[in-house]
Amino acid sequence: MMNLSEFSNSQRLREILLAKIESSPQERITFAQYMELILYHQDYGYYNSGIASIGVQGDFFTSSSLGKDFGELLAVQFQEMWQNLGCPNPFYLVEMGAGNGELAQDILNWFQNSDDRTLTQALRYVIIEQSPALIKVQQELLKSFNVDLAWQTWSDIDSDSVEGCFFSNELVDAFPVHLVTKNEARLKEVFLSLESGKLSEAVHPISTEKLAQYFEFVGIDLLQKQYAENYRTEVNLQALDWLETVATKLKRGYILTIDYGYRSEQYYRPSRQLGTLQCYYQHRRHDNPYSNLGDQDITAHVDFTALERQGKLCNLQNIGLTQQGLFLMALGLGDRLNELSSGKYNLAEIFNRRDVLHQLINPTGLGGFGVLIQGKNLTKSEQSLQGLSMPAM
Known about the structure:
By secondary structure, the chain is an alpha/beta fold. The chain has helices at about 10-25, 30-40, 70-85, 100-110, 120, 130-140, 210-220, 235-250, 265, 305-315, 325-340, 345-360; strands at about 1-5, 30, 90-95, 125-130, 150, 160-170, 180-185, 185-195, 200-205, 230-235, 250-260, 260, 280, 285, 295-300, 300-305, 315-325, 370-375.
């Protein structure tokens, strides 16, 4: 249990949480509802309050926080996608969840500095971002670019209208998840309620049959004997709805999803008894989602099997799933490492740059992230991509 008076962030968010639980049926909410409130409340949630700190000195950092290499190598892949599609004009790049805008900045810089400006002229760069605070940061950072750049919502984009690529980097891991557990030989769910002013977890029957259907969908049976009593894990139902939305907007092209996660058989290993839920606060990782209320990020790993199978239901083609390290090496990161011996850099620059590039491909860190590419209405040749040219591990 966690005494609400011990929480360190806004009193208003605590009051909203308390009122939400008290007004809910049976005075309890799912963990997904809790996570939605704590991260995405329009005024006080972690992502919407302006407190979210992204970067090496912040609560967490992403691949784009390490420098321009990640964005430039993605731009190489986007250029090939454009060419595969026959160089359409317009060519849409739709970034979903753009963080502080650094990734967009690096991609657009690469395009604008390219010798061939044809793609830049055809480019329509769209950002879908639900946080007003992050939109302001992004708009300030990107205001100098002379390209067709817009911030839109899903409702602004017509169905079956986009020819190009929807992409995201560390987006799906922050979607609210349900916490489920094996209890008394049944699949049950973890709920949150109040006991004497303290936030308390309690196990009850699942809130929706979609949770049971999810495990049938990915081919996992938590009730088998190899799963211990009180085995606990997460289900990201929102990821399935999100991918369905993206698929309906895409007319022809690609969906690129980069995130940390596993296939289902790895995600739901019997030995992973506490799931993958983790929190980030001032660049420290821990596993208590009830501390630092509104001041910390809460994430769970991505089930890539679920995204692949949902994609097929949405008439998407599964083009490939690989690791970020292999993906970036195939796009030319190895050439950037080799360039360090060209004599252009002093010793300090060599060490610093090598460290950055190695972090991007480190299989125990960023390099182990999953890279899933799906497509729609593509020929076999259009599904051939440079980033997938190295065999997946």
